[in-house]
Amino acid sequence: xxxxxxxxxxxxxxxxxxxxxxxxxxxxxxxxxxxxxxxxxxxxxxxxxxxxxxxxxxxxxxxxxxxxxxxxxxxxxxxxxxxxxxxxxxxxxxxxxxxxxxxxxxxxxxxxxxxxxxxxxxxxxxxxxxxxxxxxxxxxxxxxxxxxxxxxxxxxxxxxxxxxxxxxxxxxxxxxxxxxxxxxxxxxxxxxxxxxxxxxxxxxxxxxxxxxxxxxxxxxxxxxxxxxxxxxxxxxxxxxxxxxxxxxxxxxxxxxxx
Length: 258
Hints:
- By secondary structure, this protein is an alpha/beta fold.
- It is built from 6 helices and 15 strands.
- The strands form 2 sheets. It has a 10-stranded mixed beta sheet with strand order 5-4-3-2-6-7-8-15-10-13, sandwiched between helices.
């Protein structure tokens, strides 16, 4: 059976989205907003704050616009939904966004899933099946801070491996490459690269083959305790990846834009 090709891009970091762009959703977690947060906000069709992520939006988004009144910035950048167990959001922030008409969903009864998981599920369940293949969820604040939080966020990628999800920090992005597809990663060299990596976190990969990297893999086994393709470099406009295991793809984000 022929395996279909899944295309990946970091076009959401460009000032203008390509005409064939995916439909983007944005989730803000409780870590410092990346410098390009206003750009992600502009590209997204729905924006969620996961619990304390609302504090970050309230406190930090005005800092990107020092010449504007913070009140005006906050009124412009209002999330559609605030969702989570609501143990981190400040009372003044919750009160402000509630009065602004934002939908707040308290799921404190569910302590078995993370706030990110809750927000991903909300977006996925709200998206018609016919549109899910064109959906990409961008997540800020998923990297950095406590390692157990990072591990939990990466675990969400695996729990929703059928949904395009990109975890973002100021320095890099992470996304899962499902083994069900071959992958073509289109490199926007003005905003990402050249440092990259392919990491078999879920399980070992007995066979991974790539092109477009300085150190390509050819039917190569990767596993923790053995070879893992970190500190690699992209060399062209397209990277291809074929593997018998789900892999994490990560690539650096350049510092010279916002």
